[in-house]
Amino acid sequence: MISCAEAVRQLWEYIDDVVDVGERAAIETHLARCRRCCGELEFARELRRTLTDAADEDVPDDVLRRLRHTLEELER
Fold first, then answer.
1. Percent of the chain with pLDDT strictly greater than 70
2. Which part of the chain is the Putative zinc-finger domain (predicted)?
């Protein structure tokens, strides 16, 4: 069985269905036994839904300004 760290590391690939059959089986076996990682999976799926829903909304100008500023700071 894979570790929690490995299951969480592959979580987004699992959700995106880009893991191979063996990895998918290992993750699903782990999820069947690990309540904590099931919670991580539920959170990731809910986050994906929230971000998808928010993509249809306009982002306020002040949020865009802060985001641009943060990105500029990270580039330095």
1. 99
2. 4-37
